[in-house]
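Bump. Still looking for Xylose transport system permease protein XylH structure tokens.
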Amino acid sequence: MATALRAIRGNVRQYGMIIALIFIMLLFQFLSDGILLKPLNITNLILQNSYILILAIGMLLVIITGHIDLSVGSVAAFVGAMSAIMMVNHQMPFPIAMALSLLIGAAVGAWQGFWVAYVRIPSFIVTLAGMLLFRGLTMLVLDGKSVAPFSDGFRSMSTGFIPNLPGQWSLHMVTLIAGIVLSMLYIFMEWRARLIQKRYRFELLPIPLYMAKLIAIVLVINLFTYVLASYKGLPNILILLLALVAVYTFVMRKTIMGRHIYALGGNEKAAKLSGVKTKKVTFWVFVNMGVMAALAGLVFAARLNAATPKAGVNFELDAIAAAFIGGASASGGVGTVIGAIIGGLVMGVMNNGMSLIGLGIDYQQGIKGLVLLLAVAFDLYNKNKAS
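Sorry for the wait, here they are.
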């Protein structure tokens, strides 16, 4: 029991957000008369929040290093506009246009990263300037008009679903099989991690609690895939999100670059004395953020089937809120990719649930602001308690 309590205390923020997410889902499921967790609405939740979750992953890395990026919404809009010019006006094949769009995002990130990392201008000022600059460029490129439509191939990235097995099925069988495969993969990875911890004589969770954790997560995975299989199956964008989560989780946990990012955010001077090239790390974190903003802009444009001058408005606020609610620290050095995704889902479920029960946008904005404030206050409370 003491081991379990220590494990919970060590991850209180992440576990707290998971519990909060479950509570919020159950609350809105009740208030919306069961609409929230219907297969169609769950699918819409994924599609509606995919670009915010992509931005949240990139924003997390920026916040861990102790910086902020206010320009991501404008960059997403600008890249979406550029992709529309290439694909719609100049009939460029969408794979080439997407690759060029991601390069544009990387160039934007390099531009801002240079000023932050090497000129030492605060990231708040640099990205605030970027927010205004790229919003203006978006309006200039589009000449104040929307550009549409995109090809079906490009739109399928954001609105398409993986194909099913041939034959007549009442459920999407590929999605059900994917749930089983994910469950087996999760069990294998967890058991392997436990064996490694045992080999090095780390403190382990008691077997009953460990088995309860495995069973609970496997049930959630298979229930989730069953709900999706009841509609059209796994959306293409969910596959992309899972791939991004897997890659960035590996980078942050297992690579030198990930350790350097955490070290930079924890204490920049100490990191520099330890041999971390702090300027280089900061620069590449902003390049990465530019690429993620570009990807989010492509996903949003594909879902909307148009590039508009007003695209990306307030995206940066939702991404920042997702990172902070998911456990990132305002002072840097703390945060996980999974936590940012959970924070994004909290925001997404709240937006969707409040819309389902008919709350006005004024109430929605106020409630979201309070949730963000309480999340940061909770983080500071835990820090003060620990110290």
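The radius of gyration is 21 Å.

Edit: fixed formatting.
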